Amino acid sequence: QQQVKQSPQSLIVQKGGISIINCAYENTAFDYFPWYQQFPGKGPALLIAIRPDVSEKKEGRFTISFNKSAKQFSLHIMDSQPGDSATYFCAASMAYGGATNKLIFGTGTLLAVQP
Amino acid sequence: EADIYQTPRYLVIGTGKKITLECSQTMGHDKMYWYQQDPGMELHLIHYSYGVNSTEKGDLSSESTVSRIRTEHFPLTLESARPSHTSQYLCASSDVRDYGYTFGSGTRLTVV
Question: B13, B49, B86, B110: which one has the fewest Cβ atoms less than 10 Å from its Cβ?
Fold first, then answer.
């Protein structure tokens, strides 16, 4: 119940296309859903995040869509660029026992945007 | 701009050696974490701390140990390195009021 399932494992998109990465969770106590972007040789960096009271959040070319009833959320990258080529992780967390929240990460998606 | 620093970035060491991977953050975050990341990408939590003198083992069993004597410092130690310890080690921190994690750039460890 603590898992976050992420798909696909890898994705190849043409420049200008839309990249879509999906995640699903079971634990309805999760209340924070971030996406992280990791370039080779670097640590993951927070890209965008959403709370369950919102169905969509957009920041530039990046959009999170959230479906609370289906317990699914997805990352859409519009007008994908070669510079977006990276590994993307979804995650989820909940606050319990006070402030002892811990992120549960998905397994990652390797995105390659071809020029 | 990195507010969490890991050293060394790369380390090649012989089997049986004792090593310490350093992690320091300047943000005053109470919570710190160590992850092991294989070439297959997945992040495995091996240790975490909610504050000074607080350390817990993570989801993936690890032969490493950690300490948290100061808020800003969370070193990871391997008493006797083995080739199976070859991996990338990532340190992260978070504020008690902020769900987001800040990651360091990692230490790539190779044990020969």
Answer: B110
